[in-house]
Write a structure and sequence with these properties.
The structure is a homodimer. In chain A, β1, α5 and β2 form a beta-alpha-beta unit. The relative contact order of chain A is 0.12. Chain A is 44% helix and 15% strand. By secondary structure, chain A is an alpha/beta fold. Chain A has three domains: 53 residues, 434 Repressor (Amino-terminal Domain) (Orthogonal Bundle); 132 residues, Rossmann fold (3-Layer(aba) Sandwich); 133 residues, Rossmann fold (3-Layer(aba) Sandwich), CATH 3.40.50.2300. In chain A, α7 packs across α8 and α10 crosses α11. The N and C termini of chain A lie far apart (85 Å). The interface between A and B is large, with 41 and 40 residues. The first copy, chain A, binds a DNA duplex through α2 and α4. Chains A, B: This is Transcriptional regulator, LacI family. Chains A, B: Keywords: DNA-binding, Transcription, Transcription regulation. Chains A, B: InterPro entries: HTH_LacI, LacI/GalR-like_sensor, Lambda_DNA-bd_dom_sf, Peripla_BP_I. Chains A, B: One of its GO terms (molecular function) is DNA-binding transcription factor activity.
Chain lengths: 341, 341
DNA sequence: CTGAAAGCGCTTACAG
DNA sequence: CTGAAAGCGCTTACAG
């Protein structure tokens, strides 16, 4: 069933059928009514490939998401889709495995779907090189900054990961913690993890405290079980530790379970804090102290940047949105160490 | 840049270029080498719309997912994508809002992408009528049964929701609970909710106990906040209640938070159980007692059914996979009510 | 092994 | 307002 069949049956030419389908006003009411009737009768659906081939059309905005289990991404994504459609762009989500190459995927998508722009949720910094410009459309990296990558068509929206980590570490130190461990992602591939770790390091050194990345930082996947195993290792390696800063809420939840399975209470025996500020963090007991990344605001900001790049050809921008330290109940105030000494 | 350009530059005809691109063996090594060289030089990517138009080709298997926040769906999806690609099918995920019409979306996708088959994760029973057959490809509903819908091209894989609810209610009753409330989805649209509720009803009546759906069952969205508000309502309406059965783990987590915010302990004051058996359930404190839907097994089963329908034109089948009651720590054993009386 | 040509199902100037 | 026709970028018999 093609528009040719509709044309024959309705007694009009294919051009007229096409105009009816595309809501072109230059069609008589009689023709429109008749053609619509035939279309209805056969439940005719035009062939999108032909349409797009002809129009060289593209398909709105592509969103490439690494991993299906990331609750922060889910929130960001939901809002971005709403923002895109409010701005008159359709959006198309491509989920890929955490270990797949998101830039390769973007190449495929650009070839097949010709989007106006591409949004990345999650990234391996090793995949983002200057050849991203070959995609030929504005791109946006969400929740990681791409400022240092300096790729001409890649914008980014994120919190200031360094400052946020400084803030959280400061909070732990202010609460009397000194033996603190960290659980984060693979430092060679995860830009936010290394930014957060460097924030931690700098706050330690600013306060004249020592920090041993080899012993205090454990790399883990951003999953429950990743946080769980990392915590087990830390308990074996760092006896007497009083606080753990996990670089995602999900890892923090895993870590808390590991602590409890060793008979330790949170926060009485060990304090735990997370990063992301997912909705779930506020439903746990104890409520998780964490850094909130404002998903909705980031999404809105990102979409408007990308659309500006698309419509006005603006240069890439790297926007930092404000984070927030959400005080939960998972950090214990320890006796002031200065008073002890 | 089209194959015409490649043809001109390489000195061969477009047909030969096309053959190289499609790995047709009938090309001389010399031609292949030269053409590949030119393709490389320009990073040429063939236009997929033209290819698909010509081939009337389709794009593997479409997966339509309702809601981005469902952890059970995320697990099922991940496994299904792996299974599809292992079977040589590409897969394409379409996330839609929980309130959008998944069957409408499937129509769009079928028109635009011509998939071999469509998988639905999540469904509103009102959207599934006999006109689903118009899609012209085998469809599969995951985690909800479609046995009663009896649509010729719609298979389904699910647990036996009725039996699972009977089992969980029996477990609560066996533990001495009598004042039990239920939190589930909208009964007019959610097939599993009404199946589970009917299981609850039948177990109550089998044991000669009364059940008041109007008072004991609260409809909520399948979200944290949905569970939270439903629990608040129940506390207001059913004083003295000793147990709550939420029809999803996420709702159960919301309910637990609401209980604690009213100063009640779980399970000492009120027992809570969930449904789904998401990974998170086992990381909570107390660990959640729940019905495990075997995500991986369901995914594997569903994909193989769909592929059989696609390749061998089999009739739709409705498969039940075994559920499992996961005993956590969220149900309190009460004194035997028979001994009291 | 290769080329010339038809045709996939649409859209859109162009002419009337 | 409508029709006839060109053409989007590919694939694939067909002929050589």
């Amino acid at each position: 069933m093609t528009i040719k069949d509709i044309a024959r049956e309705s007694g009009y030419a294919v051009g007229t059928v096409s105009r009816v389908i595309n809501h072109n006003p230059n069609v008589s009411d009689a023709a429109r009514a008749r053609i619509l009737e035939v279309i209805e009768k056969y439940h005719f659906q035009p062939n999108a490939n032909a349409k797009h081939l002809k129009q060289q059309a593209n398909q709105g905005i592509a969103m490439i998401v690494k991993g299906t289990h990331n609750m922060l991404f889910a929130s960001v994504l939901e809002k971005m889709q709403a923002e895109c459609s409010a701005a008159g762009y359709s959006s198309m989500v491509f989920y890929i495995d955490e270990n797949d190459n998101e830039v390769e995927q973007a190449r495929c998508v650009c070839r097949e779907r010709k989007p106006y722009g591409v949004i990345f949720l999650g990234s391996d910094r090793n995949h983002f090189g200057p050849d991203l410009a070959d995609l030929g459309v504005p791109c946006l990296l969400m929740t990681n900054t791409a400022a240092t990558a300096a790729i001409p068509n890649l914008s980014s929206v994120s919190v200031d990961d360094v400052a946020a980590a400084v803030r959280m570490v400061g909070h732990l130190l202010d609460n009397g913690h000194r033996r603190i461990a960290f659980i984060g992602g693979d430092l060679t591939s995860s830009q936010p993890s290394s930014a957060r770790l460097s924030g931690c390091l700098s706050e330690f050194s600013r306060r004249g405290l020592s920090f041993d990345p080899a012993g205090q930082y454990i790399e883990a996947r951003y999953t429950l079980v990743g946080g769980y195993h990392a915590m087990e290792q830390l308990l074996d390696n760092l006896p007497g530790l009083t606080a753990v800063f996990a670089f995602s809420d999900i890892m923090a939840i895993g870590a808390i379970r590991a602590l409890r399975d060793r008979g330790l209470r949170v926060p009485e025996d060990v304090s735990v804090c997370g990063f992301d500020g997912i909705e779930l963090a506020d439903y746990l007991s104890p409520r998780l102290t964490t850094i909130r990344q404002p998903a909705e605001r980031m999404a809105g900001c990102g979409v408007s940047i990308l659309i500006r790049c698309i419509e006005e050809g603006c240069d890439a921008v790297h926007e930092l949105v404000p984070y927030e330290l959400l005080e939960g109940e998972s950090i214990q105030r320890l006796p002031d160490p200065n008073k002890i000494h």
